[in-house]
Each structure stands twice: as C-alpha cells, then as structure tokens.
Design a protein that fits this description.
By secondary structure, the protein is an alpha/beta fold. The two termini are about 30 Å apart.
Length: about 270
Amino acid sequence: MEEMDSKPITKMKNIELFNDHFQNFKRYGIPHAQLIIADPPYNLGKNAYASNPSWYIDGDNKNGESELAGKAFFDTDHNFKIAEFMHFCSKMLRPEPKDNSEGKDIGNTGKKSGGASCMIVFCAFEQQMQVIEYGAKYGFNKYIPLQFHKNYSPQVLKANMRVVGNTEYAILLYRNRLPKFNNAGRMVFNNIPYPRDTDTIKIHPTQKSVPLLQYLIELFTDKGDVVIDPCAGSGSTLLAAARCGRKAYGFEIKKDFYKEATTKLLTQIQPALF
C-alpha cells in the first residue's frame, strides 16, 4: 500500500481533503455530517472501461482497443469493503433528532418535514440491493432509489450498440426519520436530470458533475452544514459543497488523485474557505 499523508490536523478548516483511508477518521476530529455523498469503487475490476469509449483508441472502436482495454480504473477497484464503508457512515452521520423541530415547514400545513441526516451512495445498477441490505445492517432502515439520466452516453461510440445507457444510479439512505429537505414543500422526482459539467477540470475516471452535486447538497442540507465524502476522488463533492456555503471533508487514499485534487480542482475554492 502506498504511503499516505496522515499527519494530525491541528486546526480544522471548513474544506479539507485528507490523503488517507476513511477508516482513520478519528485522528482528524472532523464533525458529524448532515449529508454523506459517496461514489465508492464498484469492484468492476478488469471490466471498468467496458461501458466507456476509452476502451478504444480515441473512443472509436474502428481504431482498435486502447491500452485501457481490460484494465481496472485503479487497484482499489476490486476489493472495496462495503461493510467498512457503512460502519464509517453510521459513525459520522449526525444522530437523528428526537422530533421534527429541525425540519422545514411543509407549505401551509403547519407541519414540518424531518431534519435528519442522510447519505447518497452512487452505485452500479447491480449493486443497488447490496447497498440497501448493508445499509440496513448498520441502522439505515429507509431508502429511496435515485436515477440520474443524461442527455448523452459514454457508450455511443462502442461497437455496434444501438441501445445505450445514459443513467447513473444511487441510493438515498436514512435511519428512520425523514431527512432535511429544502424544496419549499414541493415534490422531487427520483428520476433526476444529470447536468453535463463542461466547466470543471476532469481528473478522475468516475468524477461526478459538480452542478449535480450542488443540487443534491442544497436539497438535503442548509448553509453551514457539514458534508463528507469518504471516497473523494477528484474532490468534486468538496468543491460543490464550498460553492453552496457548506463545510466539507473528504478522504482519498490514492496519492495521485489527492495531489491532482488539491493542486488543480480545489484551488478554485476561495482561499478563505480552503
């Protein structure tokens, strides 16, 4: 395993990315989160690029296979332990409030929505039940499946495929009380448009759209709340949280991604925050 920068933090910043495994969270003294957003490894192994045009040279099957064909995204993409991940989330999400006093007013009903914390876990289609089942083992008894549909597909240039995927999947997990919800009492469909992000530098193969992350953060947290990403990758969750006025902390075990995130992407955050 590569050496990681795991020096104790003497002064907590509002936005902080740690080059360490999330299991070592105790050494940093980070606050509990209102929202955890994570895109953990899918354990795809050698099929990581199977639905990605990078499998082919210049993204076109006519050019033959590229050096990425049959390769994993990274060496952690075959042995990710979801139980360890759920244990972390059970410890670092804020405890449930005893009542709905922290919730939002629901229209003119005189009632409030829940103010509880929650987590959003991106996953492969086949992993959804695994995420739900492991979540329940660690006290996350309620869930809502989410789908994010794109108006483009990375599969378009592959082989002779005519029906192509344009959907990403996630599970919203919470304990028992409804999560904090900022939408003025209006419904939100669980089939959500995925905004294309052409403004953020791409430094990670599974990097999520910053505009999408901002939407989710604003929906489930208030300004000043804490957001945690235990599998931070590019740091895009931290960038989105900073733009929303939230505090954010992330863990990235790979030194190369950590360096890219801190020197290229997170430098877009105002110095007063980072």
